[in-house]
Amino acid sequence: MASVSLQHVTKVYDGQVVAVSDLTLDVSDGRFLVLAGPSGCGKTTTLRLIAGLETPTAGEIRIGGQAVNAVPARQRDVAMVFQDGGLYPHMDVYQNMAFALRMRRLSQREIEQRVTAAAEMLGVRELLRRRPAALSGGQRRRVALGRAVVREPAVFLFDEPLSHLDAQLRLVLRSELKDLHQRLGTTTLCVTHDQAEAMALAQKICVLREGQVQQIGPPEEIYDHPANRFVAGFFGTPPMNFLNAQVRTQADSIFLEIGDERLDVPVAFRPRLAQSAGKPMSVGIRPHDLSTEPVPGEKGGFLSGTVTAIETLGSHQNVRVTLRSGGACTFIATAHAQIEPRANVRLHADPDSQPGNNYQIKPVDKCV
Fold first, then answer.
1. Residue 154 contacts by C-beta under 8 Å, 6 or more apart in sequence?
2. For the whole model, what pTM was predicted?
3. CATH of 4-234, one of 3.10.110.10, 3.40.50.300, 3.10.50.40, 3.40.640.10
């Protein structure tokens, strides 16, 4: 096992396309970090830089405390699992898993022990004599993981390991991947564009956008305290609602004016908004913090609008509302709530029931 450190790493292609920009990242020995972000944000490039498949334009990469910029990929003691699995089609499962060990000239007994142990761990022992073409998508992913496990590397690198699988299989393999890390304790970096997958797997998440770090932290910090509008909108299903508002004061109260309607400011935000009266703000509210049920004591204010779409998901409904003040937002209703398309609704949010974690309120000119 080993730590992984990137210090001010930049990767530029063809002298003009910046894939990764001034990336600084530290992954402690034995930790599981997920690189998350939309397609094209630099996630896979970062993984390939660590693996030695790409050379950084600037900056330093360390594995186990040792600089590896000039170290060839085969000598970095990392195992990378590619998005498509990368299995050799002319070899059976056993041969695929044993290939790297044979290149190291390990004894046949050692190869047999490692392959058998990994196959048992991943539930593919009965598949050892099959070729990749005879395997399902999930089986191929398990074999690709097994090929990495048998090497007993210092670092695992997973590039979208669960992509292109059906939803149920993704859940199963996600659980198995997390269990694998808990068993082996190997430093692991995983790339995904799926925010739910990132939240479920990671001990720490690095959010990337256009090659730049937006935020690094534990999953609960990323969700509860997003650093900016991009992070707030990327994590959460359905995504956070964003509305334009003005800060207003009346007597001793502070509220947000949205069109000619209002929402009271959550307690956590009141001190820093006290001096912002009249200023435009971008307001983010999680869908599960909006409800058609009035807040006790008639506090909190409301937003009115018309239901334009209802998405029924079994356990709940995602309801889309076009607001009278302009814009739109989504709220979550119970599965049996009687809500009809084109119905007029009032949405309430209780500011005192929240510590402010599920709101994001920032000056419009500071939102990124």
1. 1, 2, 63, 64, 77, 78, 186, 187
2. 0.88
3. 3.40.50.300
